[in-house]
Amino acid sequence: MRSSYRLLTWLQNAAVYLVLSLFAGLMLFPFIYMLTTSFKTPADTFRYPPRLLPRDQVFTRVPGYEGELPLYYGVVNGERRPMALVQNSIRVGVFAEPSRLEQTLTVPLDQVQATGATLTVNGEALEVFRVPVEGGTTVEMVKLSQTALGRFVDPQDPTITILQNTRTSTPVERLALHPENYAQVIALRGMDRALTNTTLVTLLVMFGQLATSVLGGYAFARLRFPGRDTLFTVYLGTIMIPFVVLITPLYQIMVAIGWVDHLASLIIPWIFTAYGTFLMRQFFITFPKEIEEAALIDGASRLEILRRIILPASTPAMATLATFTFLYAWNSFFWPLVIINTGNEANHVLTLALNVLRGRAVDSPNLLLAGAAIAILPPMVIFILGQRFFVESATSSGVKG
Amino acid sequence: MKNLSIDTQLRLLFLWQAALCLAALFGGLWVFFSAPWGALARYGVGLPLLLAGAAAGLSAWDIRQRRHRGRVLAIAVNYLGLLAAGVGALHVLGIFLGIDALAGTFGRGILWLLLALGALFIGGLGERLEYRPQLARRLQQGGRWMAALFGVIFLLRIGTLPALLWLLPRLLQPLPLGLLLAAALFGAALWLASRRPVANALHAGVLSDEAISGFLFLSPNLLGFLLFFAGPLIFSLYISFTDWDAFGTKNFVGLENYQKIIGLDLVALEAPDQAANTVIDVNRFSELARFNLLGRSYLLAATDKLFWISLRNTVQFVLMAVPLSVILALFLANLLNSNLPGMRVFRAMYFLPSVAAVVGIALIWQLLYNASIGYINYGITSAVNALNALFGTSLQDPAIRWLSSVDTALLSLVIMVVWQTVGFNTVLFLAGLTNIPTMLYEAATVDGAGKWAQFWNVTIPMLAPTTFFVVTTTTIQAMQLFDQVFILMNPPEGPNNATLTIVLYLYRSGFQNFRLGYGSAIAWILFALIFGVTLLQFQRQRSSQMEY
């Protein structure tokens, strides 16, 4: 009874892990695909069936031949082994003796001699050639068909050669990364500048918003002034308003100030948010008042209290807000799209650069995904380092409030 | 100034306020009536100036009468003046536009910035070494010095010196110099007004001091909020009643935009295939749909067909994406809510898509959805082949053209968005689940309730607030779908407008066809929809809470 119960629990846990792993695979796969594809050659990305890992064809040197030669698998004496392609598109004919049509021989056309005669086999007129066979003799054979093949030699023993269709041969490959894709995409679309732009914008928005939110949140939480509660209600009410409502007038304000096409337009309007103020206020309000009152009696100013007492104790709340703002600023797309001109590449942020890069999807997915990786990886690395605050920022955005 | 008698100080303040009043009033009137600026700047500068003038006058009068209100107003006016002059000086000097130049050189210094932060962090570690005070002090000092050194190198690397050299001659030009001078004067007046003797002479109370610091603390946020949020909001509402087209025309047209957007016409047809132009005014309306009801054929026509298409697409998207994302998240959260090891790792993995840039994600999915070489179709083909081989069936490979087929374009978006949002929602549900007291489950077990009954009778009701929040935020986000469509689909509106969403249509109208008034009206309709949906959910949540 007891052991069967244990078995049941074990099975149940195994099922839970199985389902969770399945979903984890689904969640991670696009990112894995992005990373591996970003290290591929363009030709490798268009292969069907698709393969996850980047591979390169292996090249080798063969004594007696010039340069690096690509390796393919070939069958010699019933054995599969790597063979080097030494000559492509050799025109060959498939020949057979008229008496034994099923036993064919494939010979390059430059090694046979036309007799000029034709022979009708099975109602088809076939040309007759003199074909050299083993032993140095020639035999008259009819040409059944002709095609183009590649000549392959065994790198270990260059005397062994075979003829084989190059297109249907399997290339010998090994895993190989192409990190130069990243250098290429950076050079192509100024992704390095876009990266610094995004970093700068994100940092300034983050710190600016932290500063105004801490000050405003403290005022809402602790200081009594006329109209405070009404104002706070107004703040709360605006959190739900979608950004698109503001986009036209905000654009006009940017025109009036002269910030269109400049990074300032991506920073300054975003450092004053009702949401951040709300978040900080909710945190400060849980703070015991007594310490503050004692400090006030000791003659500390409000700013000193905020700096020396409140802030050191609010790191979690501030980190949460910082995380939230970081993600928002780093990933924002609509506003930059509207306000930064497509032609002004120096002021592109990453998302805009990716939007321009999108046109390259047709010919080089590897570059496209290298660009995507540049945009996606920094927040991910920060997420992995500070996971706690990300999860906090998700949950504190409403469930607790 | 400290040596001056309190009467002189008050007289000085009075004179300054009176002068300010006159200057602001005259300046305001000039800006309002004869400045060669656009309407926005005229109202935006003129009205505040007039208000400031009135406030300064009132404050001067009050100070004369020794009323405390005068001090409050003086502080307000001078503080705002200080801010305006300071920000104005920064603006005129081109500091804000200088951010662009900073971005150009910022990359060179980023390493040193990181080093400086690292040094600060190491110095901060010193505080933890309380048991070895000497080492702690050394560590703190060393960290601070290193941080300062790296900070200076950072400033040098990003080109602070050339920037200062460039700035210095500009400082001496009349406009920046005047603004800086004005800022200094405002600052001095502010300092004077906030001094204790002046406060005492004007009978300041503790409460009013607190109120003043309250407003000062809130002011950066509040001013920014007014300038970049509340102001634009009102402006946006006004624009939506005009036919502004960004080329100069701006006439007040009342509700015309709204009427045009949502205008519908329903007519009964004599025959199902009757030509549309025989029943509707084709100059105004275009056919939206035909349908049969109780044996009669009807034709539905709209003044703005594209809006209704975008509304239909958005609603379809919301109805598919939100339930999928929420139910899947609830399922995953329940699986994760156990004491088994490794749950945090799974939670982190599920959360990953929500930290990644939507634009990058859409690029990845665009390739995954590729009909010929994409992984999704490859997976389907493999699955079909495997099934055929295993069971001897003869299933057809559907070979779906995900993004270019009218039937699957919106579905592709749904799948991608669900994939992207489900982890975030899972984390929210997980937080909700851990808040449910275990006592409730124990009680349910004692009552003989099985796992399933516990889920329905304990988990779901207790999770209602979380569910409300998750559903509401997911819906609000889904209704504003834009980034994903814009990148994933090419063209963004998809095949035959299959993925034209409301925000995409708004972007088209406002920023590609430059019909700003029309676009704003669409935005307000979207807001009304979002508001309505949220209110509805709020009501439902409230009524469902009544039951428990």
Please supply descriptive tags for the structure shown above:
heterodimer, A: 401 residues, alpha+beta, MetI-like fold, 3 domains, eight-stranded antiparallel β-sheet, two-stranded antiparallel ribbon, B: 548 residues, three-stranded antiparallel β-sheet, 3 strands, 73% helix, globular
Question: What can you tell me about this protein's structure?
Answer:
The complex is a heterodimer of chains A (401) and B (548). Chain A is of the alpha+beta class and 401 residues long. Chain A folds into 3 domains: 2-55, no CATH class; 57-175, no CATH class; 182-396, MetI-like (MetI-like fold, Orthogonal Bundle). Chain A has helices at 2-38, 42-45, 180-189, 191-222, 228-238, 244-257, 264-267, 274-284, 289-297, 302-313, 315-331, 334-339, 350-357, 365-385, 387-396; strands spanning 55-57, 59-60, 69-76, 79-97, 100-108, 113-121, 124-132, 138-153, 161-164, 173-175. In chain A, strands 2, 3, 4, 5, 6, 7, 8 and 9 form an 8-stranded antiparallel beta sheet that branches. In chain A, strands 1-10 form a two-stranded antiparallel ribbon. In chain A, helix 4 (191-222) crosses helix 8 (274-284), helix 4 packs antiparallel against helix 11 and helix 4 (191-222) runs antiparallel to helix 13. With 548 residues, chain B is mainly alpha-helical. Chain B folds into 3 domains: 1-204, no CATH class; 264-302, no CATH class; 307-547, MetI-like fold. Helix content of chain B is 73%, strand content 4%. Chain B has helices at 6-34, 39-64, 68-93, 98-125, 133-157, 160-171, 174-194, 196-201, 206-239, 256-262, 305-336, 343-355, 358-368, 375-391, 409-434, 438-446, 451-462, 464-479, 483-488, 502-512, 516-547; strands spanning 264-269, 286-293, 296-302. Chain B is globular, with a radius of gyration of 32 Å. At the A-B interface, helix 1, helix 4, helix 5, helix 6 and helix 11 of A face helix 2, helix 4, helix 9, helix 11 and helix 12 of B.
